[in-house]
């Protein structure tokens, strides 16, 4: 599903944020990305979303070199990736329902079909009863679940999450991770960046560890 | 993962019939035009001020254009009065004068002729000056016969050429034409046209700037939203659409206000203009915009608004990169 081939990313011409990354992720796999702050986790995910382009090497997603995508194709590429952000990136002037519906609106989905999928996604994260609320009325954990619902509403083949539990207490973090495991179980390829080592250790999935932009460990689930 | 996607589920979600795509495109246009209109209405004072600025920028060139349009009508009226007077030699008799008139009428470039015999000339002269008694005491008629000629082409150069040709006709003493003031008026009209065009271009740019600036602020206000939708796969066209509609609404609103101002202004100026024209013995009135003119004004203003928004959004989108 994902192949990094000797990928390097250099910011500002001097500083290597990522160096010589070489790994593969199989379809349907669930992978954790760890490393302390500044190790390059976000940079790696941004490369995958094609928000940045590699300075060296190639990134293949489903066999396609994503650096070769024309600018006009990039939106269509992104529609097939669900992304969960640490700070949710919700739109605060519209309801939970319309936040989750946003990807479908962008794709021009038929409204009745969209409504069905939005409700299904909200039901999955346990927030169906809050669909009319505004994001500001929700707790941090609930907002993050809305972010997840939005990421999965168009059933992406690949789900990326950048520190989705960063601001949450341990119990909420575990709940969120359990959601990602559910999507993994139905066949979605999932990649979660996190530095919550205790939680990751308990969940037993493949873990890529970055340190100063290098891949220092690639441990299969025990 | 391009469009021939690895995920069957994803593929099914992406695949849409041409009709479905067309419907969803229309749906988004409808939604965005209404959404941007309601955003404008949510800030009525600010929107109105922007539209008023647009209207003021439109009124001046449009008003000048109307004035010139009126001047063109006046021009046609003046063309009617572009005539040459051919004075025949003093010793040409009445029969001879008739023959000369026919010869002149047959010449190329002459539309019509009218013979004024010496006696008729004297009568007109007396009437015009009110000097009947004094002139009646003159021993003979000092005036020559003359032929008034309407040229086919009233353009100054053509009239001058015609006059030069008539000078050489046997029995013609002198050809008179008074083109100076006609020409002056034409130059003035031409000057007006150019000033009008220049103003239209300048004020059109002004409209672009007004709309561009307003839209730039709107884009800035919705920056986070733009970043988020870009992150989840919105195309530039999708992001631009609501702003283009806002720009078009601003333009249309400004155009309507300009239309109102022009109508009011026309009514307000009508009486003094008519009085002024009458004092020159001409009939001149500012023409109204009419249906075609109104459509043109609104069309241009809407297009300018749209274009201003397009420029502002495109310039700005290049700078907005999702974090
Ligand atoms: N846009 C950028 N320009 C310059 N340096 C950057 C940029 N983004 C990230 N970096 C640097 O790259 C390194 C890796 O950052 P990041 O990928 O955010 O790490 P992590 O997510 O693991 O904390 C950091 O040193 C960071 O300062
Ligand atoms: Mg990070």
TrEMBL record, chain A:
Residues that span the membrane, as ranges: none
One Pfam family from the record: ABC_tran
MF terms (GO), sorted A to Z: ATP binding; ATP hydrolysis activity; transmembrane transporter activity
Cellular compartments per GO CC: plasma membrane
InterPro entries membership: AAA+_ATPase, ABC_transporter-like_ATP-bd, ABC_transporter-like_CS, ABC_transpr_LolD-like, Cell_div_FtsE, P-loop_NTPase
Primary site of residence: membrane
Any one Gene Ontology BP term: cell division
Topology versus the membrane: Peripheral membrane protein
PANTHER family registered for this protein in UniProt: CELL DIVISION ATP-BINDING PROTEIN FTSE, IMPORT ATP-BINDING PROTEIN
Family label: Belongs to the ABC transporter superfamily.
Function comment: Part of the ABC transporter FtsEX involved in cellular division. Important for assembly or stability of the septal ring.
Known partners and oligomeric status: Homodimer. Forms a membrane-associated complex with FtsX.
Protein's UniProt name: Cell division ATP-binding protein FtsE
Organism of provenance: Halomonas organivorans
Gene from which the chain derives: ftsE
From TrEMBL, chain B:
Annotated ABC3 transporter permease C-terminal domain residues: 199-314
One CC-aspect GO term: plasma membrane
Top-level taxonomic group: Bacteria
InterPro entries from the UniProt entry: ABC3_permease_C, FtsX, FtsX_ECD, FtsX_proteobact-type
NCBIfam families per record: FtsX_Gneg
Organism: Halomonas organivorans
Annotated localization: Cell inner membrane
Stated name of the protein: Cell division protein FtsX
Oligomeric and partner information: Forms a membrane-associated complex with FtsE.
